[in-house]
Amino acid sequence: MSEEWFQFQERIKDHFVSLGAEARTNARIQGVRTCHDIDVYVQTRYLGEDLVWLIEAKFWKEKVKKNQVLALRAIVDDIGADRGFIVSMAGFQKGAIEAADKTNIKLKTFDELASDTREFAESEILRTYRERINLLEDRYWSHSKRTRIEYGLRHDVIDNVFTFTGQELLATARSAIMAAEDRNYPIDLQMVLTERKGEATADSFQQLCNWLNLNLNHLDERLLNAEWRMYENGDYRPSTGRTRARDSYITELIAKAMTGKLEEK
């Protein structure tokens, strides 16, 4: 193996590691019928399921042919992997493209692989943020309006200063996630609240994650402190119901209105 080919494999492996997956190069994997040498072997989780991807790194001057696609299809089947990728520097012949069509073999340049798999990983991360927002919202609305005002979870309408309200924070977080799903950067994170965390815009996915972590942690901490004081004062009487899966959350509807998605339906 040439040094350039080795570096090509390492670059692919490092990309998957940067997404939080486990990846190793030159892996020897036992299949049902025989052992196989895999250029890059990737293991990750998506929607609670374990996934295995096999990547063949073709640092060739010529285009990948049909027989290389068929060979990888057989290896993927023997190992029981979920998907196989051939990453080529020179592209693919027509026969290779036809052989991979409508199969679990994907033909990519490195840039295409990086873009597609990053989007795949980001969608999973955004899903976990949405689940966390759902939990926080159920906790927030479980307390009466009077209780939320008394314990600092929202300002009173008669206040001249908009200090804090969980509703606006959650709606802003949801609208930001919707924008990220559409890859509409920069994302406006401006709120009228005087108590807020982070920057007013997110220019990248990482910046958005930083903002979500700061603000969801902030709300979580405020809820925890407020609920502890409610308990001490004998005011802890939350509604124990959860929003049903088929129902929309209040701040979800607000976020859709903010982003124009409510009108789309």
Automatic annotation (TrEMBL):
Hydrolase as UniProt keyword: yes
Alphabetical list of InterPro entries matching this protein: Restrct_endonuc-II-like, Restrct_endonuc_IV_Mrr, tRNA_endonuc-like_dom_sf
Keyword Cytoplasm: no
Start and end residues of each Restriction endonuclease type IV Mrr domain: 4-114
MF terms in GO: DNA binding; endonuclease activity
Top-level taxon of the source organism: Bacteria
This protein's UniProt keywords: Endonuclease, Hydrolase, Nuclease
GO terms (BP aspect): DNA restriction-modification system
Name under which the protein is recorded: Restriction endonuclease
Organism: Pseudomonas indica
